[in-house]
Amino acid sequence: MSNELNAFNGFAKKGISFNPEGKTKAVIYTRVSTKEQADNNASLETQRKYCELYAKRKFLTVVEHFGGTHESAKSDDRTEFQKMLKYVRTHSDVAYIIVYSFDRFSRTGVSGSHITEQLKSRGVIVASATQEVDSTTSSGMFQQNLFFLFSKFDNELRRDKTVSGMREKLRKGYVCGVIPFGYDNLNPGKGKLPNLVINKEGKLLQKAFEIKANHNLTHVEIARRLSKQGWTKNFKKLSDYFRNPIYCGVIVSSVIPGEVIEAKHPAITSKETFLKVNGLLSQK
Question: Which of 27, 44, 105, 207 would suit a FRET pair with 124, their CA atoms being 20 to 30 Å apart?
């Protein structure tokens, strides 16, 4: 460089430093997808062990641990995940986020890639203990983004299988998901067909339908009368219950749009009473 240009050294732009001043501080983030996995804890322990071994191998100092619980990575709006990101953004001496694998960090595809790009612009690297890529290079970032995209694709495949199973179950007349208010399930368990029976609350709801159909009282008055018999729900909930055909033995769902299915579970009220109640509500 000529002496004439030396005078302009102070104006030279600084490049992005992926490990400024040789920073060696790191945080570890671990997670599982379900409460059952978290209760078992084996996977979380394994993840943490591999992450700590990675840090030791790379001569990194782990200053904080995040996660350690169940958080679905279908969304990046996770409590522990966001807590970890906030910590990294407010502690400029942290240069690495260590995860067991990139799908532990995110399974949102493009969104996960965007977050890692933002972190990289701040000099923070997302490192996988089991999928070592040099994300400071273009080819390394490409590999990392592929991991995020494949995780997203895997999520979509799982969702398709789940939805297909739900459709088949619904079309056979079985309730999917949360058991409706007023029923107990005598056959609980993942993958099992529910065996619903009407409980005490369901019998009170049955009376609510009858009062509405025969006397057309306000929801406030219906709830007040039933409270003497043990009704505890807010009167506003009656509107939701009165409009849900599940209580007259009919299944409808956005998973099977346009279809109306005869349910297997016992009805809390008759179809005639249900339609009468909803006719009154429509007039109102």
Answer: 44
Q: What mean pLDDT is predicted for residues 90-110? A: 89
Which tokens go with 24?
Answer: 């060696």
CA atoms in the 13 A half-sphere facing the CB of 121: 5
Tokens describing residue 206: 């049955």
Read off the pLDDT of residues 261-275 as tens digits, 9 standing for 90 and up. Answer: 999 999 999 999 999
- In the numeric block, the tokens 């005598």 are attached to 186
Q: Which of the two residues, 28 and 74, has the higher pLDDT score?
A: 28
> Which two structure tokens, joined as six digits, stand for 258?
């346009």
Q: Among 89, 83, 87, 53, which Cα is nearest to 71's?
A: 83
Classify the C-alpha dihedral 105-108-112-115 as positive or negative.
Answer: negative
- Tell which wins on pLDDT, 165 or 127: 127
* pLDDT tens figures, 14-42: 544 445 456 889 999 999 887 776 666 66
The single-letter code of the amino acid at 158 is R
Strand 25-32, strand 183-185: pairing: unpaired
Query: DSSP string spanning 33-53?
Result: SSHHHHHH-HHHHHHHHHHHH
Mean pLDDT (whole number) for 136-140: 75
Which own/partner pairs from 32-37 qualify as long-range (CB within 8 Å, at least 24 positions apart)? 32/69, 32/70, 32/71, 33/70, 33/71, 33/72, 33/73, 34/70, 35/70, 37/70
58-74 burial: b if 16+ Cβ within 10 Å, else e: eebebeebbbbbbbebb
Residue-level pLDDT at 198: 97
- SS3 for 98? strand
- Sheet strands (E) in the chain: 25-32, 61-70, 94-99, 125-128, 183-185, 196-198, 250-251, 261-262
